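HUMAN: Would you supply a protein with fold tokens?

ASSISTANT:
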Amino acid sequence: MIASQTTINGLTGFQRARMLPIDGRVRVHTGQTVNPEVVIAEAALSPHVEVLDLRPIITGLTRREMQSMIEHEVGETVEAGDVIISTGGTLNRVLRATASGVIREITPTQVLLEVNRRPFQMRAAYHGDVVEIIPDRGVILQMRGVLVQGVWGNGQHASGKLVAVADRENQLLENDQLKADCVDAIVLAGRCNDIEVLRRVKNLPVRGLILGSLSSHLIPTVQQMEFPVLLINGFGPVGMDSQSFRLLRSNQGRRISAVALPWNRELGIRPEAHIHLPAEELPAPPPPREYQEGQLVRVNTLPYLPQIGQIEQIPPEPVLLPSGIKAMAADVLLKSGQRIVVPLLNLDVIE
């Protein structure tokens, strides 16, 4: 069986594609070193049309009267706040442009305003080198340094100084941990189960949040946040696995990229954290391979999530599990010294 692979590595090399959703213009060149905030490509998005309601303005007026009150005709460019229609008189009523754009149509009841949209800008998200240009779409970046992969992200990315507020991988994030040094930083904590703490995080403000785990009822809250929330191990009270926690905490004070993109196995996109370290060319993590004895693994099932261990043996035939289901499994020696039997589907090989 091909093993599920997770990278938790203090010094590795890896590549990532950063691609526009539509054709556009690539703004960097091969060999260029970029930081996470550099715009590497941009594209013009389709115009957006806003419908402005005329009925509160022209109530009781004839079409001819309305025509005389139009101050900007169809096809004219307007800026936000410009008056499009004004009734004049003592009780002057006006319709103003809500944004800059072009008037596309004026009817007896509405104005159609084509709003100018800023180009969509794709930022690097990582500190790395451009090794390949994908014409009109994006680039391939080569990175070196620390890489810790997670299991869930809210779709945002940012970079900043890493500040660890937890002493233990399962420590609960609380308000009194969020101090001045967390402002404009990527905060590392064990787990969170309180919406008020998340509001405190947002109001500081921080640049990102890396957690071992999060209570599932807080998913809608973090999905609305404008900074990345990256979960290393998932949902519930499990906290963070010891290997990821120690590696990240040991790099406190360094600049980290929290790339909390949703996990897409088909596209090879995964939420992850990267710390750039100067190094010679490093080999990429090995491609997926089969489960083998001696591999270091992370357990992804309760009650052992997210403990780390080593595969001691893989029986050649399916094993009868306590649930009554037969499945391919492995005998795993946890770092705590406990031996357990775990279905292979619930193990991630750590590279």
Summary: The mean pLDDT is 91. Residues 195-203 form the longest helix (9 residues). DSSP finds five helices and 28 strands in the chain. The chain has three domains: 4-14+143-276, 48-115, 296-350.
